[in-house]
Design a protein that fits this description.
148 residues; alpha+beta; 4-stranded antiparallel beta sheet; 4 helices; 7 strands; N2O_reductase_NosL; signal; Copper chaperone NosL
């Protein structure tokens, strides 16, 4: 009886470990030491960082949203089920799902790769940004398909 209980506990712990091992939550980016998966530059600016977390839980980190967009286009078949995250421009380190974020292609703010794509959690915040600094509002579908 006691041995059966131990096996059940081990099975439950194994399932919990398996579930956490495949987490699709954003990974920690070590600024100043992690390298961009696409361009191989060091990731230094958390306002522009982004990442793709695969369905197996592997985090692919990027120094700019445009690097993630290019990588996605070039590797679409391998990224089925992956979640794309972008850093909130106004609150760096706050991860937003790319499909839910609002983007601005800024005319005055420069991103690490020079395409100047910024992410905001809402259209209202993006519009506020463009009312203060020139830029164009974009959705993720536009960002991910634009040749940069």
């Amino acid at each position: 009886m006691c041995l059966n209980k131990i096996f059940k506990i081990i099975a439950v712990l194994g399932l919990l470990l398996l579930a956490t091992a495949c987490s699709q939550e954003p990974a920690v980016i070590h600024y100043g030491s992690d390298e961009c998966t696409h361009c191989k530059m060091m990731i230094t600016d958390e306002q522009f960082a982004s990442q793709i977390v695969t369905d197996k839980g592997k985090a692919l980190k990027f120094d700019a949203i445009e690097c993630m967009a290019v990588y996605q286009r070039e590797n679409a078949d391998e990224l089925q089920g992956a979640i794309r995250y972008v850093s909130d421009y106004n609150q760096p380190g706050n991860w937003l799902k790319a499909k839910e974020a609002q983007f601005v292609k800024s005319e005055v703010v420069n991103s690490p790769m020079g395409e100047s794509v910024l992410a905001f959690p809402t259209e209202e915040e993006a519009k506020k940004h463009t009312s203060e600094r020139p830029g164009q509002l974009l959705e993720w579908a536009e960002v991910s398909q634009t040749e940069m």
